[in-house]
């Protein structure tokens, strides 16, 4: 496998038109009727997920206990967990049919496309937990939170997933957008593309500050309405270094637009960047993925109808700390991520079918999104093009951070392009990236502004 410093050509878009057919808007899944008090009993977890395991014991009960990690662990490192465990079984092309009802369409397509593809399935651990104040806020949200603006915004929610008993697809997706990942954090992360010929291409290495004002403890009275703030500074390769991006996302994008600015090193100017959303190709991933594919789905909800199908047991990536602790050379194979490093587990997920609205456009015409029942984050996604053909298979590799505590599902995004036969891994941490998702002191709102963007880059 050859490693190169720059990709020689970007892939062409596999679809340019949008399918007109849609699923019913806000279709209701069949769910049990719960109330806020159920979050404090023996029926549900503080997130609103079913506390009990499944009937055959392959999914355990949620206990809320912190996961033990290695002695001497320091914030900013990858915690080592479950190091002594072996796979319960491996899924291969030969036995894939036996597990087909618990596999995403994208996973099935990978087995059909690559005969040597493999998924190692480990014992399930429901490790998603959060600080007590987050649980207290979810309890309040259960009575107060609501959708407004035809489901495109939330109101009266703060400091926890807004809808612990989601009744429609928009509520499930808002739980994903507002899931707990920490408060103020810094990391160094990479994006690599592996071409159809097996070349590993470094698309970008970035320093990133993440801040989630929505999760400031005791901060509800001063909450400005922006749930996420990001400051992104590429440092490599040379053609990416020198520019920076600030992006902030509101809980009500109908009234307050998503704000994005970029520092253009060639002009030494800061410009608004309204294009850094929807299906605009993501330059930090070499243009191989789109901005709204980051973290499975991100940004505004206005171009899709979201249909909540319901809960389903699925084999998904989970507790993938082993992948994040590995070297770049070990992480990537010529056709897919090194199967030895990806931990798959059986979990209950909330399934949402997202279909482009009539009159709207997005090159991803339909998506099946799988969201973690416990923490709320999207973990996996099948993407279909305008012709109805399965185009991409996306998954995140959630990481346990006991010191925060959380299971973070916004790192290590894998996108397999089933048409082009290449794949991209973005927002990725590895043994060469340090620190890794390190909690830092709260940053002022002024840090996430165009003025700070210019000052940091030495521009004007």
Please, could you describe this protein's structure?
By secondary structure, this protein is mostly beta strands. Helix content is 10%, strand content 29%. It starts with a strand and ends with a helix.
What is the number of E strands? Answer: 21
How is the quaternary structure best described?
Answer: single chain
Write down the secondary-structure element order.
Answer: EEHEHEEHEEEEEEEHHEEEEEEEEEH
Strand content: 25-35%
User: What is the average of the pLDDT values?
Assistant: 91
By secondary-structure content and strand pairing, the structural class works out as mainly beta
Helix content: 10-25%
Rg over C-alpha atoms, rounded to the nearest angstrom: 21 Å
**Helical segment count:** 6
Shape annotation: globular
How are the secondary structure elements laid out?
Elements: E1 3-4, E2 89-91, H1 105-113, E3 119-121, H2 132-144, E4 146-148, E5 153-155, H3 169-177, E6 184-194, E7 200-211, E8 226-236, E9 244-250, E10 259-264, E11 269-272, E12 304-317, H4 321-324, H5 328-331, E13 344-356, E14 366-372, E15 378-384, E16 390-396, E17 399-401, E18 406-408, E19 413-417, E20 422-428, E21 438-439, H6 450-457
Question: Notable features of this structure?
Answer:
6 helices, two-stranded antiparallel sheet, mainly beta, single chain
Short overview:
The chain has 460 residues and is mainly beta. The chain has helices at 105-113, 132-144, 169-177, 321-324, 328-331, 450-457, and strands at residues 3-4, 89-91, 119-121, 146-148, 153-155, 184-194, 200-211, 226-236, 244-250, 259-264, 269-272, 304-317, 344-356, 366-372, 378-384, 390-396, 399-401, 406-408, 413-417, 422-428, 438-439.
